[in-house]
Amino acid sequence: QSVLTQPPSASGTPGQRVTISCSGSNSNIGSNYVYWYQQLPGTAPKLLIYRNDQRPSGVPDRFSGSKSGTSASLAISGLRSEDEADYHCAAWDDSLSGWVFGGGTKLTVL
Amino acid sequence: QLQLQESGPGLVKASETLSLTCTVSGASISSSNYYWGWIRQPPGKRLEWIGTIFYSGRSYYNPSLKSRVTIFVDTSKNQFSVKVNSVTAADTAVYYCARRRGGSYPGANGFDFWGQGTMVSVFS
Asked: pLDDT tens across A71-83, in order?
């Protein structure tokens, strides 16, 4: 089954900029949009970035997304303690004809 | 405002059927603008898409689960449900229902609103 690959963990200090990567293949990221979700402890995933680099209303512009080829990245600038959460990437996979998710990256604010 | 609420047994015996319902409030499940889906997250593992349904009943499933899963909609109750047959310990997970805006193809829009999730444990 196709999957997306994320680093299991990331960290930064308040005010820093951190990036989280998401690696896929031609059948998912390479040919479809990427979505990013923030999951605070004990809560449901919340849409953070849609269609590679678009922010839903209410999401601070500290969060930004990008895509290049078969990889995507989520950047968080001006890191805050409340950003400590799990971050998941997702994309439609043409080979699977279904949605695939990354393994999630646990962000720690030191 | 939009709310999605999962409901169903928190414990299911191995080999039996897991059944969950998602009640949608603040929006009509019969809207032609949206699709409705189920996603699960086993403890310590990645999110896994189970399947998606349109109000007309048209549905599509994760191939790895397709033989055991059925998703159906009850527009009169503004609900949609999932059944997973022949469950094993591997089906233990938090199950989420979610909404996805329609588009020219399934990947055009991701799941933009999720329920709070419900934990289902399979015991033997």
From this structure: 999 999 999 999 9
